[in-house]
Amino acid sequence: ALKDTIQGSIIAPANSYGETLEQENLAAGSFADIQGCPMSVSERTWEHLLQAEVGNTQHRLYGGSQYHRALREFNLATRCLRLPTITEDEIANAAGIGETHDGVNFLRAACVIALEKAQMSFDPLLDAFRLRIGHIMGRLCPV
Q: What share of the chain is helix, strand, coil (3-state, %, to 5)?
């Protein structure tokens, strides 16, 4: 039954076991309001994008269908993240000096900045995604 629920099934009544996106967000959090992870779009635009790109927001989904909706919403959230600012101080500190000469390794500095900024931006979003998927998968047992 678990395999069927993940692959797609109508065995369990959606009214009892399914959740709309709003219910799911209330129970496990929304990607749009994660602390330390600002969006580059307004709340109104976010709602429009949810309808257009995620879909099934008003449908009560469970199992694999709910998981897939969460994946689509996570994908949208990653594309709507506000890019972090990079200060001149961060650039200067990332430059350092190379191991083999006293010149600056600009490629390494760019990589250091990119990795650290990506981690700062994505870690809160990944934590939220883990909680959402845990919520969705935890709801499969009663089905």
A: 65, 5, 35
Q: Are 100 and 67 in contact (CB under 8 A)?
A: no
Are 65 and 4 in contact by the 8 Å Cβ rule? The answer is no
User: Rounded mean pLDDT of 1-13?
Assistant: 79
pLDDT digits (tens, 9 = 90+) for 87-129: 999 988 888 776 666 677 888 889 999 999 999 989 999 999 9
Give Cβ neighbours of residue 36 (< 8 Å, ≥ 6 apart): 120, 124
For position 26, what pLDDT does the model report?
95
Amino acid identity, position 25: N
- The pair of three-digit structure tokens given for residue 52, joined into one six-digit string: 């257009």
Burial category of 92 from C-beta neighbours within 10 Å (exposed 0-12, middle 13-18, buried 19 and up): exposed
